[in-house]
Each structure stands twice: as structure tokens, then as C-alpha cells.
Design a protein that fits this description.
Blueprint (H helix, E strand, L loop, with lengths): L1 H12 L4 E2 L5 E2 L13 E2 L15 E6 L8 E3 L2 E11 L10 E13 L5 E8 L2 E3 L10 E3 L2 E5 L4 E6 L5 E6 H5 L13 E3 L2 E5 L7 E5 L5 E5 L10 E5 L2 E8 L2 E5 L6 E6 L12 E3 L2 E5 L5 E6 L6 E6 L14 E3 L2 E5 L6 E5 L5 E5 L16 E6 L4 E6 L3 E8 L2 E9 L5 E3 L2 E3 L5 E3 L2 E5 L3 E6 L3
Parallel strand pairs: 3-30
Antiparallel strand pairs: 1-2, 4-38, 5-6, 6-7, 7-8, 7-9, 10-11, 11-12, 12-13, 14-15, 15-16, 16-17, 18-19, 19-20, 20-21, 22-23, 23-24, 24-25, 26-27, 27-28, 28-29, 30-31, 31-32, 32-33, 34-35, 36-37, 37-38
């Protein structure tokens, strides 16, 4: 009961929450990890378990390939895909596949799945794991922003999909396309749009969101694959970036660095966005790279608290961890299971394959499950790579499943097994789940 009261109180003071008819709280999902980029879905009247019969399906709409999760705002669902016209999709982590086709944004009616408009452009691919774009669309009021796998940064009108402006990062900045494509979901804050570009003096670039003009550039760094985010710590707002050599805190207005903590994941795979709990920030990369950072409370600073190793911490890759009440929950890229970690020292509290590769006993490379916390509770929506939507209770004591249902087929492949590697969106008491063939709306109403 206390947690439920705290949840409602937190909703009342959150600027991102809308009050609907009858005072019911509703939360859009306007970009990567939701409105606040914290992986928390704040809405009342949502189920806290899934019955054996499953939950109702509202609609299914055909789409094409891609890893980009949907975004939902003001009654529209935005889904970014790739319409392949030539070439073969071969998932070789060491080489780039060559495809021809179009990157496309679809705007669908959130209630019916009917197409409202679409925007597309020709885009040959020369990347590894080439199913489609990686970055979730970012919706900001009357505009939606896209970052394509080959570096097309585009601003469109939410109303009709008309082009406002577009830039190409390789052409305009000489940026190198990462082997797995540009993946850092664009971030809008105030008048600025932040994007990981990569290169000398332009690791991260702030654009004028209205025009696409450069406002500032910062850092000698490769782009990596991690989305930037804004936090408040040390008495100031900070732009947090995780590039292949460090986690850094920057001044969002100027790009001036505040602090730097080194971390060098293999193959430049800085992917999972660093997560914050109080004055601690957890960053992880593949294999055995992880670091817990203590943030300054009186000034913008960050210092290493402890560092992960092969037998402690959790080393997340495709899915960001959740960091709640002194515990980090994440799927480990080496073992492929869900692991809970004590934030004070990196000790592993428990682990299970149930939400990633059920039945596995030893390891499943890059076993993936996307975690979304339900408000200020211990309940989580879990999207498994198997195509199952799960509700589970996660605490320091263990993992307790509260039901699951199969929503989509795993249409992609990784390490010899079929997978769904796309984060859902949650809005309007609905889960929006996609694979490479369809997007499905699942009714979460209690």
C-alpha cells in the first residue's frame, strides 16, 4: 500500500504525466525508454499479471524489418522500418551486408493500427545485422525525429509526415558509419537535438531542433551505439554520453565536459544507456566491462566507485539494465540470463534464464529481455527475445513471474537462435510490440 501511495504521489508531481478523464493518469511513450528515458511506465489501471488465457489483442498491422522500437504520442504510433528491395540479410557480426531498399516511418492510429501517413527515402545499407533502422523515433510536440542506420538525421511534421529538415552524418560531418549502424536514439531537450555523430571534436553534436543547424560539437570520440540522456546531479542538469572510451557528463547548453570515467567495451559496443539510482550511475558493456560511478552531490562530478569483472556485476548489451533501490537488474551478454546485482559492491544476488532463453542451463550469448518498471512498484513488464510479453516481480530476493503470453514470432536471428530484439512502447494502457513483419497492440487495461 505504501508503494502504491508513493506511486500516485510521484505521478502528481511529474511534468510528463497527463491527467485524463476522471483523473486517470496516462503516460505517452514519445521515444527511447519513455518520456523521461528511465524505462518506467507511469499509468494507473494497468494489469499487474497476465492470465493463462493471455491479454486481448487490439490490432495487428503489417510492417517491414528493423530493430527500432515504436514511439507513441497523442494517439499516434510511429514505427521505423526498412523495405528491402535487394540483397540478402546475413547476420555476420564481422562483416557488412549490402542491401538496397528504403527506410520508412509509418504513423499509425494508436486505437486501430490504420496507417495515417508514411515517409520514406532510398537508403542502401552496408552494415552488419542489416534488418533495418535501430533508433526509436523521438517525438517532440509537433515534430518527430529519426536517425537511420546509415546516418540520415531527419525531422518531420507529426501531422502529415512532411519534411522539415534532414542531414546525413557521413556526408555532412565525414562521420564513419559504425559496423552495426548508427543506433543512438536522438534526444530532444529544450531547443536542442542531441545525437552521437563520432569523430574528432564531434563525438556528440547538438543541433537546433527547428532547423538542423549545428549549435555545438564536443568530444574526440567514436559514435558507439548508446543514446544520450539528461539527468540532474551535483546541482545541475547534465548530458550523459557513453562512447567507446568513457562515460562523460557534459553541460547540455555548451557541450563543455564536467567529468569522465573510462570504460572501454569490446568492439566499441557502448550500447546500454547508463542508469541512475540516487547518487550512483551504472554503466556496462559487453564481456566483463562495467563500472559503478558515484556522482557528486554538490558539484557536477563523477568518480569510479567499483568496477565489474567476469564473475560479478552484469554486462548488458542490447537491453539497458534497470537500477532500483540499490539493485541493478539486467540481461548479461556472456551468460545470456537476467542477473540482479548489489549496487554497493557488484555481488550477484540471483540469476535466471526464465525471461531470456527459458530452459537454458549454461549460457546463451546475448540473451535479451527488455525491462520496463510499472511506476514505483516491484512489477515489471518484460519483453523476451522469444516474443513473449511477461509480467514479473523483481526484488533483491528473486524473480517471480506473474504470467506471460506469446505476442509475436521471433523473425530475426542471432547466434543460431530466433530472436526479437526490439524494445516495445507502452502508452494508453497498451503494449506496442513489433518484429520484422508486424506491429501488435496488446490491451493492458486492468
Amino acid at each position: 500500500m505504501a508503494k502504491h501511495v508513493l506511486f500516485l504521489a510521484s505521478l502528481a508531481v511529474s511534468g510528463s504525466i497527463l491527467t485524463g478523464p476522471g483523473g486517470v493518469f496516462a503516460d505517452d511513450w514519445s521515444g527511447w525508454l519513455g518520456v523521461n528515458r528511465d524505462g518506467v511506465y507511469r499509468e494507473t489501471g494497468v494489469v499487474d499479471e497476465i492470465p493463462a488465457s493471455g491479454l486481448p489483442i487490439k490490432w495487428r498491422t503489417p510492417i517491414a524489418g528493423g530493430y527500432a522500437g515504436p514511439a507513441v504520442a497523442d494517439g499516434k504510433v510511429f514505427v521505423f522500418d526498412y523495405q528491402r528491395s535487394g540483397g540478402d540479410v546475413v547476420n555476420d557480426p564481422g562483416s557488412r551486408a549490402k542491401l538496397t531498399g528504403k527506410e520508412r516511418l509509418l504513423a499509425l492510429d494508436a486505437n486501430t493500427g490504420v496507417k495515417i501517413w508514411e515517409y520514406s527515402y532510398d537508403r542502401p545499407y552496408e552494415i552488419s545485422y542489416p534488418a533495418g533502422p535501430r533508433a526509436t523515433p523521438t517525438v517532440d510536440q509537433d515534430k518527430v525525429y529519426l536517425l537511420g542506420a546509415e546516418g540520415d538525421l531527419t525531422c518531420l511534421s507529426v501531422d502529415d509526415g512532411s519534411l522539415v529538415w534532414t542531414r546525413n552524418l557521413p556526408q555532412d560531418f565525414g562521420a564513419e558509419v559504425p559496423i552495426w549502424g548508427f543506433s543512438g536514439h536522438p534526444l530532444v531537450d529544450g531547443d536542442l537535438l542531441y545525437t552521437m555523430v563520432g569523430g574528432d571534436g564531434q563525438g556528440v553534436v547538438a543541433f537546433d531542433k527547428a532547423t538542423g543547424e549545428v549549435r555545438w560539437k564536443s568530444l574526440d570520440a567514436r559514435a558507439g551505439y548508446c543514446a544520450p540522456r539528461i539527468i540532474e546531479a551535483g546541482g545541475v542538469r547534465q548530458l550523459i554520453v557513453f562512447h567507446p572510451e568513457a562515460v562523460q557528463g557534459l553541460d547540455p547548453a555548451s557541450g563543455k565536459p564536467f567529468w569522465n570515467v573510462p570504460i572501454t567495451p569490446s568492439y566499441d559496443m557502448s550500447i546500454a544507456v547508463p542508469m541512475v539510482d540516487g547518487d550512483l550511475m551504472y554503466a556496462s558493456g559487453i564481456h566483463a566491462e562495467a563500472v559503478m560511478i558515484r556522482l557528486g552531490t554538490d558539484s557536477p562530478s563523477g568518480k569510479e566507485f567499483w568496477r565489474g569483472g567476469p564473475k560479478n556485476a552484469v554486462h548488458s548489451s542490447n537491453a539497458p539494465p534497470m537500477f532500483v533501490d540499490g539493485v541493478v537488474y539486467g540481461t548479461d551478454c556472456v551468460k545470456g540470463n537476467l542477473i540482479a546485482v548489489d549496487a554497493s559492491n557488484g555481488d550477484r544476488l540471483w540469476e535466471t534464464f526464465q525471461p531470456t532463453v527459458p530452459g537454458e542451463k549454461r549460457f546463451a550469448k546475448h540473451g535479451t529481455a527488455f525491462l520496463t518498471r510499472l511506476g514505483e512498484t516491484d512489477r515489471y513488464l518484460v519483453m523476451s527475445e522469444t516474443g513473449d510479453l511477461i509480467i514479473a516481480e523483481l526484488t533483491a530476493k528473486g524473480y517471480e513471474e506473474k504470467g506471460r503470453m506469446h505476442v509475436v514470432e521471433p523473425t530475426n536471428e542471432a547466434f543460431g537462435r530466433p530472436v526479437v530484439w526490439t524494445h516495445p512502447a507502452y502508452a494508453g494502457k497498451t503494449a506496442f510490440v513489433r518484429n520484422d513483419k508486424e506491429i501488435v497492440a496488446v490491451d493492458l487495461s486492468r
